[in-house]
Design goal:
About 30% of the residues lie in helices and about 20% in strands. The chain is α+β, with helices and mostly antiparallel strands. It has a single domain, classed as Glutamine Phosphoribosylpyrophosphate, subunit 1, domain 1 (4-Layer Sandwich). The strands form three sheets. A five-stranded mixed β-sheet has the order 3-2-1-5-4. Strands 6-7-8-9 form a four-stranded antiparallel β-sheet. A two-stranded antiparallel sheet has the order 10-11. Helix 3 links the parallel strand 2 and strand 3.
Length: about 270
């Protein structure tokens, strides 16, 4: 898994150096994670209690505040790409359920032809755990050469979730946020992240003058106070990177302004 994270991060680095937009880079990174089956998103998602996979995703362009999301969508390979199409080709921010799938089909986006053979258990998850309330999310944030930022988040949701359950990942402001100053993607127990204020609360604290670490810490502490756990990946317009968490671990990778790629899992 660390090799895959390093590969995706190195690819993102190359694209940014070549002048790609932050929005394009976060979509490519999340698409790579969705398609890999290594994470609790896309191919690595588990069925809900009704026996089928529902997916959530969102994406946001900080420069324009444009955003798109899908919730409880079924049968698409890359929900993050559907979310971007919602952002760019509709007047809406979020589409859900059957409507989201119908829209994806109109856009000609790839569907899963055989769900039984396509979906796999992600790394570190076992068959007897798929109906426990475990969780997982993938996300990406980026700052490009023009100074624009973007964030994207995708998930299969908590294992053992009720049919139709939606967490923080597709909610702009909760699981995903990007503006002129910061880009944020959250992971963890979505219900607690939503109730704690989520990503936009970090952005607002910083606008009020709080330092980055303190702003993130307050949100994570509130999640913990509510008996949840969470982690965030953050980049600011000055190039500061933060990836803290209050859970047992978080798979993460980054590339700094000097080109250094860092990858870590649980340490």
């Amino acid at each position: 898994m660390e090799d895959h994270l390093r590969e995706l991060t190195t690819e993102g680095k190359s694209k940014l150096v070549a002048g790609a937009s932050a929005l394009d880079v976060v979509e490519v990174a999340v698409t790579g994670m969705e398609s890999s089956g290594l994470y609790v998103a896309g191919r690595g998602s588990a069925p809900n209690t009704a026996g089928y996979v529902e997916l959530d995703a969102s994406i946001m362009d900080g420069a324009t505040r444009e955003a798109g999301a899908v919730a409880a969508i079924v049968g698409v390979t890359n929900p993050i790409s559907v979310a971007r199409c919602v952002m760019e080709k509709t007047p809406h921010v979020m589409l859900a359920g059957n409507g989201a799938l119908a829209f994806a089909r109109e856009q000609g986006l790839e569907e899963v032809s055989d769900p039984e053979s396509y979906y796999v258990l992600p790394v570190g998850v076992y068959e007897n755990e798929i109906y426990e309330q475990k969780h997982g999310t993938v996300g990406a944030v980026a700052l490009d050469r023009s100074g624009s930022m973007a964030a994207a988040t995708s998930t299969g949701g908590t294992f053992g979730k009720l049919e139709g359950r939606v967490g923080d990942s597709p909610m702009i402001g909760a699981g995903t946020w990007a503006d002129d100053d910061i880009a944020i993607s959250c992971t963890g127990t979505g219900e607690h992240i939503i109730r704690a204020g989520g990503a936009v609360s970090i952005a607002c604290k910083m606008k009020a003058g709080m330092k980055l670490d303190a702003a993130i810490g307050e949100m994570l502490d509130e999640v913990k106070r509510l008996d949840g756990e969470a982690g965030v990946i953050v980049v600011t317009r000055t190039g500061d990177i933060a990836m803290p968490y209050n859970s047992a671990g978080m798979k993460r990778a980054s590339v700094s302004a000097d080109g250094t790629v860092s990858v870590a899992t649980f340490e």
